[in-house]
Write a structure and sequence with these properties.
By secondary structure, this protein is an alpha/beta fold. The protein is 56% helix and 11% strand. The protein is built from 9 helices and 5 strands; from the N terminus they run E-H-E-H-H-H-E-H-E-H-H-H-E-H. It has a 5-stranded parallel sheet with strand order 2-3-1-4-5.
């Protein structure tokens, strides 16, 4: 089962990813984690990424795709994987599809978390207020102002992926505003046909 989770920040993808990992036994692949691991391991693509990061440059799509390509060769990912936070653009999506095709693989589904953006902003503001009330520091990206900026970036860069994947027939949708357990049920029903036996 090879899937992508799509949706704006705060939509609940992280929470549901953890549950999918537990339910279906496939790893969640975070590009940030993979990048750091590749740099630490000193792989060829990791060394390229390290040089770019040290110079303050952005890591190119080619390098990120290379890191994903290396990671899905590892034993725990042979039965499938979840990508969350990647691809972020249509160009990255096309590069990912090309790389998978070269390995004789393909995505099974792209699951989009449909949410009400105004309600999301309210949800984040409430979470920040509750954190503050407990006397705990509020995460920088949990303030409504920063969250709105992240939401705008998602809208301009990543939201077009919805139409891209709808065009390929891979797009499925869940109601991200439903209670957490209800979203989990929707996902399990939707993903069950793609379950594979790990090798």
């Amino acid at each position: 089962m090879r899937i992508i989770l799509l949706g704006p920040p705060g939509a609940g993808k992280g929470t549901q990813s953890a549950r999918i990992v537990e339910r279906f036994g496939i790893p969640q692949l975070s590009t940030g984690d993979m990048l750091r691991a590749a740099v630490a391991a000193g792989t060829p693509v990791g060394l390229k990424a390290k040089a770019l990061m040290e110079s303050g440059a952005l890591v190119s799509d080619d390098i990120v795709i290379g890191i994903v390509a290396d990671r899905i060769e590892e034993k725990d990912a042979r039965g499938g994987f979840i990508l969350d936070g990647f691809p972020r653009t249509v160009a990255q999506a096309v590069a990912l599809e090309t790389m998978l095709a070269e390995k004789g693989l393909a995505l099974d589904a792209v699951v989009e978390f449909r949410v009400d953006e105004d309600a999301l902003v309210g949800r984040i503001a409430k979470r920040a207020a509750e954190t503050e009330a407990r006397g705990e520091p509020v995460r920088k990206d949990d303030t409504p102002e920063v969250f709105k900026t992240r939401l705008e970036a998602y809208r301009t860069q990543t939201a077009p992926l919805s139409a891209h994947y709808a065009g390929t027939g891979l797009l499925r949708q869940v109601d991200g505003m439903a209670p957490i357990d209800e979203v989990t049920k929707q996902l399990e029903t939707l993903l069950a046909p793609f379950q594979t036996v790990s090798v």
